[in-house]
Specification:
357 residues; alpha+beta; 26% strand
Length: 357
């Protein structure tokens, strides 16, 4: 059973000395999603609003125009087809906050999808509810989750309104609702249209477009049968997050979860593989997925937990990966979970010294 709210356990005490770690900043801020994820994935998530997915038949009913609020014709179409809708939130968690040109920005470390829930199960709404609500203002109340731990089944307490400076709640377990969409239950897969902002970046390759469509159906448009969030991008574990926060305190800004291919190609996300003209089948030629990567210095950082990296087989596999990376001019730095838990700042200093040499 998912917990209603939960902090990340066993936090290293030294992290609480970092600015805005133990609670949110007092000033207003915006989330730099495109800066962390890239334009392709940023645009992809930006398009997830209103009723989804967008279908050609509905576009025809509205003379080629689609608004966040469905037209009367679209409502009639949904009603006749017998649709109901799951309300799905795009939730972003931030690891730090920084000021740029007088503005404050939250830096994402995790993006996931989470359905609205009732009595511990995904909830649905009918066409009449959709018809009455103003979907354009669904985010006006600044919806967020308090105690949204992306590494566990804790989904957070859903709140609306200004976020209080809660000194009992660390800033990295506040789940900010970046976007909200309503997934139709009976959409016609063959009639679904693709978001223009992304297809412009893909170009005219049908192979790339088909690959991208499969991803969208499997992640964004698959109905939820439980309330556990679905990860879209970001860190995989608390120890990765702790090291990321410590590195940021030293001014280090690596990319998160970077794919490194045997031919030396490097892609920060699956989405940048599509944008770069490489289908995701190229993942079969992947050497590894680095937890963090410094492109300018060509340094890959790996956070090795005891559970997954201490056996002879795992050690040999890690060594083979390091050798393959070295062959294409990339240095590996491996940092253990126990070292991070002992002192993430010292581990970050180790990274700093290595990339400066």
């Amino acid at each position: 059973m998912a917990q209603e709210a939960a902090d990340i356990e066993n936090r290293p005490e030294e992290l609480f000395k970092l600015p805005n770690y133990g609670c949110l900043p007092s000033g207003r801020f915006q989330i730099d999603l495109n800066g962390a994820l890239g334009d392709f994935l940023g645009n992809d998530l930006f398009d997830l609003d209103g009723n989804q997915p967008i279908e050609g038949n509905i576009l025809k009913l509205t003379d080629g125009l689609i608004n966040v609020n469905p037209s009367d014709e679209a409502i009639d179409f949904y009603r006749e087809r017998g649709d109901d809708f799951q309300m799905i939130n795009v939730v972003v968690c931030c690891y730090a906050f920084e000021e740029r040109d007088g503005e404050l920005f939250g830096l994402p470390y995790h993006v996931s999808l989470r359905p609205a829930q009732k009595r511990g199960l995904p909830s649905t709404v009918g066409v009449d509810w959709i018809d009455k609500i103003d979907l354009e203002r669904i985010l006006d109340g600044k919806p967020h989750y308090m105690g949204f731990n992306p590494f566990s089944n804790a989904f957070g307490l859903h709140c609306v309104g200004e976020m209080p400076i809660n000194e009992q709640m660390c800033s990295d377990v506040i789940g900010f609702v970046y976007n909200t969409y309503f997934l139709a239950s009976k959409y016609n897969k063959s009639d679904v249209l693709d978001p223009g902002l992304c297809t412009l970046l893909l170009g005219e390759s049908k192979a790339l477009l088909n690959d991208y469509r499969k991803f969208r159906f499997s992640r964004y448009f698959k109905p939820f049968d439980n309330i556990e969030p679905v990860k879209i991008w970001g860190c995989d574990s608390p120890i990765e997050l702790f090291l990321l926060q410590a590195m940021h305190s030293l001014g280090l800004k690596p990319t998160i979860q970077t794919h490194i291919l045997t031919d030396g190609s490097i892609f920060p996300t699956l989405q940048t593989m599509w944008e770069g003209g490489v289908r995701t089948k190229a993942l079969s030629k992947t050497i590894t997925e680095a937890d963090f990567y410094f492109a300018e210095q060509r340094v890959a950082i790996f956070v090795d937990s005891v559970a997954h990296h201490s056996t002879e087989e795992a050690i040999a596999k890690d060594k083979a990966i390091d050798e393959k990376l070295e062959a294409i001019g990339i240095r590996s730095i491996r940092i253990t979970g126990p070292d991070i838990m002992s002192s993430p700042i010292e581990c970050a200093q180790r990274v700093f010294k290595n990339i400066e040499n």
